Amino acid sequence: MSNLIQEVEKNIYEGKVSNTELVQLIELVGAYLNIQTIPQYAQQNGLSYNGVKKCRTVQKILNVKFVIDNE
Fold this sequence. Notes:
By secondary structure, this protein is of the alpha+beta class. The chain folds into 2 domains: about 1-30, no CATH class; about 35-70. The protein is built from 4 helices and 3 strands. The radius of gyration is 15 Å and the shape is elongated. About 5% of the residues are buried.
């Protein structure tokens, strides 16, 4: 695990980070990764669900599949 992840994890477990701050962190990272659910991505880009699933980077996060398109 990288030092950054270890430091964030340590601060979370020590109660140094609030829920609001964690949500802001998730939103920041989500915006950077440009993550969207498969149906959202397909609709926005005029593609089929199966086309997106087979030809895009898909990552399961908290049991939801997201397309990562930040290139």
